[in-house]
Amino acid sequence: MSREEHIARTFLELADTLVEDFDLIDFLQQMTVRCRELLDITDAVVLLAHPAPHLYSPAPCDPQPALQRVIDAACVEGPGVEAYHLTHAVVPDYPAPGEQDDTWPELHTALKQAGYALPTAVPLRLRGESLGALLLLHTGDRALSPDDLLLAQALADAATIGLLHARTLGQQETVSGQLHAALHNRIIIEQAKGIVAVRRNISLNHAFDALRAHAHDHRARISAIAMDVIDMGLLPTVPATGPHQEPEGTD
């Protein structure tokens, strides 16, 4: 598949939210996966405001400990918070050799420990309404290319439209309510992922792949499959895929 075809399919995925079995967790997780595949980055993190102005991250669903520390700090300070409030992309300036930037001390410490450079962030926005931000992480002291920055913002805009469209599925549901459910479901998925990882003797990332594949095969939400793992002892089959590669510096 060419990169152009991959981009086109990704935008179709982001538009496919007007369905009864729309799964917010799966949608946002796939958003981070597609960003890693299409952009010159190591990791992508979705930061959502719920309740505003506080940010939390429902995706990626399977962060390593070092990445989780970065996410925790990024929810409080840094480019993601600024992109959310300013509703435009935030590309930080790299300090000169020998200089230290203390603008976001907690985030800088977490990034250094995880092996990441300063991240770029683009808002999840639509006509002035901001739902959060997309944080783009990479290693090496280089800025995101202008073309990648434009594509990242286009993906973020498409995802925002999908999130806002999703609330039309039910008169009593709102994006806020869905995000609250996503936060609760993430905890359930994390528990199920740990159970599958231990019982199948596989990595947490591979365990999530198994949960997602089982949900897709049975046209069910990942959160529902996770509850079956916890309550009924369901043990999904591990997909026949290659080993999940972890980014350097996140061990």
Main features:
11% strand, alpha+beta, 4-stranded antiparallel β-sheet, 2 domains, single chain, Arc Repressor Mutant, subunit A, Beta-Lactamase, 251 residues, disordered C terminus, globular
The average pLDDT is 82
CATH architecture of the largest domain: 2-Layer Sandwich
Report the total helices. Answer: 9
- CATH topology type of the largest domain: Beta-Lactamase
The poorly predicted ranges are: 169-173, 242-251
Number of domains: 2
Short description:
The chain is an alpha+beta fold and 251 residues long. Helices cover 51% and strands 11% of the residues. The protein is built from nine helices and four strands.
Can you describe this structure?
The protein has nine helices and four strands; from the N terminus they run H-H-E-E-H-H-H-E-E-H-H-H-H. It has 251 residues and is of the alpha+beta class. It has two domains: 168 residues, GAF domain (Beta-Lactamase), CATH 3.30.450.40; 56 residues, Winged helix-like DNA-binding domain superfamily/Winged helix DNA-binding domain (Arc Repressor Mutant, subunit A, Orthogonal Bundle). A hairpin with a 2-residue loop joins strand 3 and strand 4. Helix 2 runs antiparallel to helix 6 and helix 3 packs antiparallel against helix 5. It is globular, with a radius of gyration of 18 Å.
